Amino acid sequence: MTDEEILRMINALPRESRLELEEYVLVLKERSRSPLNNVTPSSDLLSEPFFGMWRGRKDMEDSQSWVRNIRETHWRNRQDAGDDN
């Protein structure tokens, strides 16, 4: 699609839609300026100290069960304490 085609399509939109599109374009423009978009990894992830830190833990062999157990324990403790949140 050419720039001219895009402009024709934009100009054919109702005024409210053009204003909405303008806001969206500004959001995209701001997002593209974010420093997070320009970050490049400084090192290989595998060489990070945290990588593999839970390797070999027997309680982590079934991670879904581990998470389920932690959640149930946490929720049970909150209910026992009378916390409704």
Structure description:
There is one protein chain. With 85 residues, the protein is an all-alpha fold. The protein has a domain at 3-38. It is built from three helices and no strands. The relative contact order is 0.05.
Write a concise synopsis of the structure shown.
This protein is 55% helix and 0% strand. By secondary structure, it is an all-alpha fold. The chain has a domain at 3-38.
Rg from C-alpha positions? 25 Å
SSE string, helices as H and strands as E:
HHH
Q: What are the low-pLDDT stretches, counting only 5+ consecutive residues below 50?
A: none
Summarize the main sheet: none
In percent terms, what proportion of residues is strand? under 5%
Distance between the termini: 51 Å
Helix tally?
A: 3
**Shape by Cα distribution:** elongated
Please give the number of β-strands: 0
Mean pLDDT equals 83
What class do helices, strands and sheet pairing give?
mainly alpha
Helix content: 55-70%
Q: What attributes does this structure have?
A:
single chain; 85 residues; mainly alpha
Write the layout of secondary structure elements.
Blueprint (H helix, E strand, L loop, with lengths): L2 H10 L2 H19 L29 H18 L5
